[in-house]
Amino acid sequence: MTHDLKKEGKYSYIEVGEGTPIIVLHGLMGGLSNFDGVTAYFSQNGYKVIIPELPIYGLSLPKTNVKSFAKYLYDFIEFKGLENVILLGNSLGGHIGLYHTKLYPEKVKALIITGSSGLYESAMGDSYPKRSDYELIKKKAQDVFYDPEIATKEIVDEVYDTVNDRHRLIRTITIAKSAIRHNMGKELPNMHTPTCIIWGKNDLVTPPEVAEEFNTLLPDSDLFWIDKCGHAAMMEHPDPFNDILHDWFKSREF
Questions:
Q1: What's the number of CA atoms in the CB half-sphere (13 Å) around residue 239?
Q2: 0.90 cut: is pTM over it?
Q3: Which CATH architecture has domain 6-252?
């Protein structure tokens, strides 16, 4: 991570730049540093980038779910005194952004989802390794990316530690089940917030047809592809990702 983590009250977050607020929502296994490219680019181009640490492993078990995370995000936005925010979420973070937008549409100017859950959840928990098989975990981490080399030892070790920590593993499985319960398929057609969908053409976790379904169901959405790219487009191909998103902002006058 190249930016300092601020701590205020119960919140920890990165905040860089000035201008229209972009709140970035990390995924289940995604670190804040996964968005370094987004943070560096947009904080220098007229936007304030804010990345809160979501309480993935910090809530009681009954509150470890997509809805509670969306409420946490609402409370954070209120705490910061923000209006008309842009939400950008990857994987579970995209799902949280979608659910928050459903609950509090008046707070959200625009939504960006990439490799988002919310429609297709089987990759989030059904076959997740429950034991300390390092090579299996390494393979699963590599499958997140088109280029397996991006799954560094640091990333693999973090996932390995998570599945071997009973507290975090229970919450990981609980969140996976929550993602299934909070499927957005029936609600998306009623969500009119402008949405930019940026997807890796080679995403094995949430395959391309998921992006197409999001684009079909959301009334005001645009879909963009990045070739030779897996589940974390903003991490694997930050420059094309930033170019696509900045052009979309310009076209929508955000």
A1: 0
A2: yes
A3: 3-Layer(aba) Sandwich (3.40)
- 7 beta partners: 12
Residue with tokens 């205020």: 8
- Give the Cα separation of 237 and 244 in Å (integer): 11
Contact criterion met (CB below 8 Å) for 62 and 24: no
Instruction: Pull the structure tokens for residue 157.
Output: 């070790």
> Tokens at residue 86, please?
């842009």
Which of 184, 23, 172 shows the shortest CA–CA distance to 99? Answer: 184
Domain coordinates in residue numbering, the chain: 6-252
* CA–CA distances in Å: residue 49 to residues 13, 61, 160, 215: 10, 30, 30, 25
- Please report, in angstroms and rounded to a whole number, the separation of the first and last CA atoms in the chain: 27
Kindly provide the b/e burial profile for residues 133-166, where b requires at least 16 CB atoms within 10 angstroms of the residue's own CB. Answer: eeeebbebbbbbbbeeeebeeebbeebbebbeee
Give the separation between CA 221 and CA 150, rounded to whole angstroms.
29
Contacts of residue 44, defined as CB under 8 A and 6 or more positions apart, other chains included, come to: 17
With H, G, I as helix, E, B as strand and everything else as coil, classify residue 167.
helix
Burial class (CB in 10 A: 0-12, 13-18, 19+), 78: exposed
d(CA 31, CA 2): 12
For 146-195, the pLDDT digits (tens) are 999 998 998 888 888 888 888 888 888 899 889 888 999 999 999 999 99
Torsion, CA 151, CA 152, CA 153, CA 156, rounded to 10:
-30
The 10s digit of each residue's pLDDT in 69-104 is 999 999 999 999 999 999 999 999 999 999 999 999
